[in-house]
Write a structure and sequence with these properties.
The complex is a heterodimer. Chain A is an all-alpha fold. Chain A is built from 8 helices and no strands. Chain A starts with 17 loop residues before the first helix and ends in a 5-residue tail after the last helix. Chain B contains 15 helices and 20 strands. Chain B is α/β, with parallel strands linked by helices. Classes of the chains: A mainly alpha, B alpha/beta.
């Protein structure tokens, strides 16, 4: 299931350190979304290269379909932004130009987010937070929350099946209550599961005052270093541009 | 022998309910004992397990008087997290006792919480995995495991923490017979290691030879204690009179020949014919049935080992399986999966998933075209839930919810009802009620029951459909 922090540990391809993923994410936000240094040609081109990194990472995680779709859409939008938009005028320019701009800026970050969530396990996440000295009071509630999502999704699909069999659908006789009908059982089931989950966690010592250890091995390897070097490139170019070495 | 736990004059009442309360309970558990708590639902056996692992009073709120000590520590003044290394717990629902997505991390979870050094945890995992022979399950994704495998990982997680006392609350509710056998081996290992074990259970047969002392409870009190020998030689009649399930049934329907065969006289000659019931997940064939005739109006038990294709079969039959292309012939009419979805209804194991409306009446009327309440009320009367017609379905008991779901399916004109393990975790009386209800549907609609419960089959089924390896031959 492609959910939050539910990496399929049996078939996940290349594994990166969660901190590497975070660094890529921050870089994408600064350069792709924030357009930092777009006045410098070298940074602009480098931003495109970094924006393509998430697709590459998706491939490395064996999520080929997702990667192909994202690459195609991104290439189309970027190409039209570069080639088509400058030739347009009037309303077409505002609409298409706006769409391209929003998409080209947001897309890499979104893909990176999807990659991060679908390839990191909860234990890796906790381990990374721990290494970055984030206090346990923040990581534990977060990890419980992440554990909870996939279960709720499972419940949701069961409820959907039941609704199909009862022929309750949008446009049916009870369309007005469609959302209510779906939410009531979902909430009842979620509360039950949440209660049981908390009880189980308590009996296994979650929340002791002792500092938690973690057997999950995270660390920087060759792939991480390569990715990090690439991520560092736009920053270096930005500084070089600011002091006037590159244009 | 030393005392592992001592419960003295305990009264307990849950803050938000009447069932499961305890009254003047006294129980002393010696180190190394294996104790079975039994009794009908709501007798308080789960409450006792919660006293031992500290969930009462630290998690479930209520009024508690009397004293509970576990290894000489007063349960009230010991924070529940600090009991983690001393008392281990295995619960009923494998879905809601996992924290990690991979099995190795899951086994390590408890040890990590206790702040053990990494090497220590790794060596403990190693030992646990060797002891339990679950090498194959390491490094797997939790979502790809069967119920039995999940329960084994839960046991491994408890084992790795090396607790002195282990409590299990209905651990077999979601398991098939093979998985139960494996759980039995695990518990028997724990026993030989000298651990103290307390099990609250409805299913009793598998515990023969495992439990030293059996405690029979009723309404929050201990009514009688038995030794293992005494208890496991009780007759089925005696057990049923106590509201307990039989230890074993005369017939094991898993030994019937594959295919559909009658086990009781049945007169209706009409049949429902299934054709091309083949389905595969990717390359893996899950179902491969060319032709099968089911008696129309029969109550048919669908049996088979885990992974035999029972749930794929029922999903296909109800038209729920995407990409399934088989067909069904009823009374000479050829029906496609889409039509089958209109004619059939599946009552899930967790009925909470399929109750949507605010009152029982509204719920039952939901799938119908008219607003006429009369037939709905008649139906509720017939299913003995008319008195609850104004209640919110979610406020009903499990059995009443099941009836509401059945009523809604019958009123919507469904001709085929499929039940997924309708009696898992039910005591004798509730099982008998369900059996009676299912039997009353005979001839009216065709009922398929996916179940491991031989007692239920004995009581209500007219036919047994045995599926193995997705096939009936």
């Amino acid at each position: 299931m492609a959910g939050l922090f539910t990496a399929d540990v049996e078939n996940r391809g290349l594994v990166l350190d969660p901190r590497t993923k975070l660094a890529v994410m921050i870089t994408l936000v600064i350069f792709a979304l924030g357009s930092t240094g777009s006045g410098i040609t070298a940074v602009r081109w480098m931003t495109i290269v970094v924006s393509l990194l998430p697709m590459l990472l998706l491939v490395s995680a064996r999520k080929y379909r997702k990667a192909a779709i994202f690459t195609a859409v991104y290439a189309l939008m970027k190409a039209s932004e570069l080639l088509l938009v400058p030739k347009m005028t009037g309303p077409a320019l505002s609409i298409i130009g706006m769409c391209c701009m929003i998409f080209v800026r947001l897309c890499p970050g979104l893909i990176m987010g999807s990659y991060m969530l679908s390839t990191t396990t909860v234990s890796e996440f906790i381990a990374a937070m721990h290494r970055m000295h984030v206090p346990q009071q923040i990581t534990i509630p977060l990890s419980v929350m992440f554990r909870f999502f996939p279960t709720v999704l499972e419940e949701f699909s069961d409820i959907n099946t039941a609704m199909k069999m009862r022929d309750i659908r949008l446009g049916g006789r009870n369309a007005g209550k469609f959302i209510e009908y779906r939410l009531v059982p979902l909430m009842v089931c979620s509360v039950n599961i949440g209660n049981e989950l908390s009880a189980a966690a308590l009996t296994r010592g979650l929340g002791t005052k002792v500092r938690r250890t973690n057997i999950c091995r995270i660390g920087f390897h060759t792939a991480d270093i390569a990715v990090l070097l690439l991520t560092a490139a736009p920053y270096i170019l930005l500084i070089l541009g600011m002091i006037g070495v590159v244009k | 022998m030393n005392t592992a736990a001592k419960i003295q004059q305990v009264d307990f009442r849950y803050a938000n309910g009447d069932t499961g309360a305890l009254e003047g309970l006294d129980l002393e558990i010696k180190c190394g004992e294996c104790i079975l708590l039994c009794g009908s639902s709501g007798c308080g056996k789960t409450t006792v397990t919660r006293l031992l692992n500290g969930l009462i009073p630290h998690y479930y709120e209520g009024e508690l008087t009397g004293s509970v000590t576990v290894f000489d520590r007063d349960i009230r003044s010991t924070p529940i997290e600090d009991l983690a290394g001393t008392v281990g717990s295995v619960f009923q629902n494998p879905r809601s006792q996992f924290f990690c997505v991979d099995t190795t991390a899951e086994i390590a979870f408890g040890c990590e919480n206790m702040g053990m050094p990494e090497e220590e945890i790794l060596s403990r995992i190693d030992k646990t995995v060797k002891d339990m022979h679950i090498e194959k399950l390491l490094g797997r994704s939790i979502f790809n495991l069967s119920g039995g495998e999940k329960q084994k990982i839960a046991c491994a997680g408890v084992s790795a923490m090396m607790p002195e006392l282990i409590v299990l609350d209905e651990p077999t509710s979601n398991l098939d017979l093979d998985a139960i056998d494996e759980l039995r081996d695990i518990i028997s290992d724990w026993r030989s290691q000298g651990k103290t074990i307390v099990i609250a259970e409805h299913r009793l047969g598998w515990l023969k030879g495992l439990c030293d002392r059996i405690i029979f409870m009723e309404n929050g009190r201990i009514v009688r204690e038995y030794t293992g020998e005494e208890f496991f030689s009780l007759s089925t009649q005696a057990l049923n009179d106590m509201g307990l399930r039989a230890l074993h049934t005369d017939t094991n329907y898993l030994e019937t020949t594959a295919g559909c065969s009658a086990i009781k006289p049945f007169n209706n000659k009409e049949v429902i014919t299934l054709e091309d019931f083949c389905f595969s997940y990717g390359k893996q064939t899950a179902l491969n049935i060319d032709r099968l005739e089911l008696p129309s109006g029969g109550v048919i038990a669908v049996v088979g080992h885990n992974g035999a294709g029972k749930s794929t079969f029922t999903r296909c039959l109800c038209g729920l399986q995407k990409g399934f292309r088989g067909k069904v012939l009823i009374g000479g009419k050829k029906l496609r999966p889409r039509d089958m979805m209109k004619l059939s209804y599946m009552v899930m194991q967790d009925v909470n998933h399929q109750l949507f409306a605010e009152t029982v009446t509204e719920e039952v009327l939901l799938g119908t075209e008219s607003d006429d309440e009369k037939p709905a009320l008649e139906l509720l009367e017939r299913l003995n839930i008319a008195e609850y017609k104004e209640r919110h379905p979610m406020s009903l008991s499990g059995g009443q919810k099941q009836r509401t779901a059945i009523a809604s399916a019958l009123l919507a004109g469904k001709k085929l009802l499929v039940f997924d393990e309708p009696t898992s975790g039910l005591d004798f009386r509730s099982m008998e009620c369900t059996a009676e209800l299912l039997r009353s549907l005979e001839n009216d609609v065709t009922v398929l029951i996916v179940t491991h419960d031989m007692e239920l089959i004995d009581r209500c089924c007219t036919h047994v459909l045995h599926i193995e390896n997705g096939n009936i031959t």
